[in-house]
Design brief:
Radius of gyration: 13 Å
Mean pLDDT: 88
Largest sheet: none
């Protein structure tokens, strides 16, 4: 999970709004394609029962949330947007 967090963080540096969202989305999808096993585990954070994993998961969501701050969304709108985007980005090959 740290691998995904690091990739998203580096990708988002210096970008804002649409460019940041696009870059984060691309990196998220690339991660899923390059490391499908790790990606599957990232989707099951609650099963890990680890404080460190929960914190990393929250930090990943934080990257998305920070990017959305420029759009003046309410907290609920941002949460729904992030859920929708992540759902859309799930890789379904074959």
């Amino acid at each position: 999970m740290r691998n995904l967090y690091d990739k998203l963080l580096v990708t988002s540096i210096g970008l804002e709004k649409k460019e940041a969202l696009w870059a984060i989305a691309q990196e998220y999808r690339n991660f899923a394609k390059q490391w499908p096993g790790q990606y599957q585990l990232v989707q099951k954070v609650k099963l890990w029962k680890s404080d460190e994993t929960k914190e990393l998961s929250e930090q990943i969501i934080g990257i998305f949330s920070k990017t959305l701050q420029k759009y003046a969304l309410t907290e609920d709108e941002a949460i729904h947007f992030i859920r929708t985007l992540r759902s859309y980005l799930h890789v379904r090959d074959g």
